[in-house]
Design brief:
By secondary structure, the chain is α+β, with helices and mostly antiparallel strands. About 35% of the residues lie in helices and about 15% in strands. The chain contains six helices and six strands; from the N terminus they run ββαααααβββαβ. Strands 1-6-2-3-4-5 form a six-stranded antiparallel β-sheet, with helices on both faces.
Length: about 210
């Protein structure tokens, strides 16, 4: 039995503005368009789909690029930060300055997903950045004990394949070869929405060049 102390963070909102303070080049930012980070509600329909998909993929083993960086999520309410980390560490050429993201990338690049999870549990700098950002958001800060139904995941392209990166799942999902990243990600996101079309709490933001850099 795992006797490690359970760690829980405040949840981030959908517009994290912490990357430039921690080493990400100012040419890059998250904006409200379609791709990369997807927020959706956790429903019974989704859970049933997820369980069936994972069962299928355990039988029909995926091919996962050795260049993919995947973090297991063991910290409650940290899905927003996990999506952000998956975005920047799998596009590490964006990390041009000093800061916690460069340090995490350097320290964890050769670790297993489980080792990365333990590393993040003990990363006080990341916990502080997360808490500060969660408290400085535009929406009301939720009670840390509140049970949340919304979840962040990341879509990114590694070695010409589209990956779905969700630290709460057993493994990353390879959605196959992809020539047009935005189109491929949008197609998968549409499938998510199709599971629960009556739900309204969907949001998508993208990591892209800041408009002033064009």
């Amino acid at each position: 039995m795992d006797k490690r102390r359970k760690i829980k963070w405040l949840p981030l909102e959908a517009n994290p503005d912490i990357i430039h303070e921690n080493g990400i080049d100012s040419e890059w930012s998250f904006i409200d368009v379609y791709a990369v980070i997807f927020l959706f509600p956790i429903t019974e329909t989704y859970e049933d789909f997820k369980n069936k998909e994972e069962t299928h993929l355990k039988i029909h083993e995926q091919s996962i690029s050795p260049n993919l960086i995947y973090y297991k999520q063991t910290i409650s309410n940290a899905c927003g930060m996990m999506a952000l980390l998956h975005s920047v560490t799998n596009n590490d050429y964006l990390i041009t300055g000093p800061g916690v993201f460069k340090q995490i990338f350097r320290d964890t690049r050769t670790m297993s997903p489980e080792e990365r999870a333990e590393y993040l549990e003990n990363c006080a700098d990341l916990a502080q950045i997360h808490e500060s950002s969660a408290k400085e958001g535009q929406t009301k800060v939720p009670d840390i004990k509140e049970q949340l139904r919304l979840h962040f995941i990341c879509f990114t392209k590694v070695d010409e394949h589209l990956y779905e990166l969700d630290g709460s799942r057993e493994f990353p999902i390879n959605h196959g070869k992809c020539s047009n990243f935005v189109e491929c990600a949008a197609n998968v996101i549409s499938q998510f929405i199709g599971l629960d079309p009556e739900e309204k709490e969907y949001s998508v933001i993208a990591l892209t060049k800041t408009s002033s850099a064009f």
